[in-house]
TrEMBL record:
Biological source species: uncultured bacterium UPO64
Domain of life of the organism encoding this protein: Bacteria
Classification via InterPro entries: TAT_signal
UniProt keyword list: Signal
Signal peptide (residue range): 1-25
Protein name: Uncharacterized protein
């Protein structure tokens, strides 16, 4: 009969051995969000936020709705940075600023940022910052997505690489119905652990 102590010691050693890569195995960081767990944060007071959250939730590790209090982002960012997870969001500029300031001391940088402003006469202005390799394609997608831009943006951001900081900027105007009420400016963003 094996004692409890010997059993637990053997389990601990087996667990440690499984953490060591096999000889000749290449260990590479994941550059894309496809396999990497990420958290989604969204302002759910407006239809755009609900649409973004609906599109991204099936792929997210966890999804968080932020209501009236942008300070709710503090606990989300604390959990995500402690676990080293990427965080995607579509929020107000205030909630984005809080998230960025909380994440910065943990080596997180901005892999993507989009500012979305409703203009008069059913026009929407997108100002995008991201990696030059994929920013043009994202801008074209948003330009042709009209009212479905939050869903298109959410699905696309979940599959983009989050391995370098924003380097390129692009601005586009497109047709989109103005939602009821005054939605104000929305900011979409991806904060990722980019610096050691």
């Amino acid at each position: 009969m094996v004692s409890r102590r010997a059993f637990l010691r053997g389990g601990s050693l087996a667990g440690l051995a499984s953490l060591v890569p096999a000889a000749g195995a290449a260990v590479r960081p994941r550059a894309s969000l496809r396999g990497q767990p990420f958290e989604a944060v969204c302002d759910t007071r407006h239809p755009d936020g609900d649409a973004f959250l609906t599109a991204i939730s099936p792929r997210a590790y966890r999804s968080h709705g932020v209501g009236v209090d942008p300070g709710a982002v503090l606990s989300v960012m604390a959990d995500a940075t402690a676990a080293g997870r990427v965080v995607l969001g579509l929020t107000t500029p205030t909630a984005f600023m809080i998230a960025r300031q909380v994440a910065a001391p943990h080596g997180y940088g901005l892999a993507f940022q989009g500012e979305h402003d409703y203009l008069g006469k059913d026009r929407l202005h997108h100002r995008l910052r991201g990696d030059e390799a994929w920013l043009g394609e994202l801008a074209t997608l948003l330009e042709h997505s009209a009212d479905a831009w939050p869903q298109a943006l959410g699905r696309t951001l979940a599959g983009l690489p989050a391995d370098r900081e924003c380097t390129a900027t692009q601005a586009i105007d497109c047709v989109a119905r103005h939602p009821p009420g005054k939605p104000g400016q929305r900011v979409s963003w991806v904060l990722a652990p980019l610096r050691a």
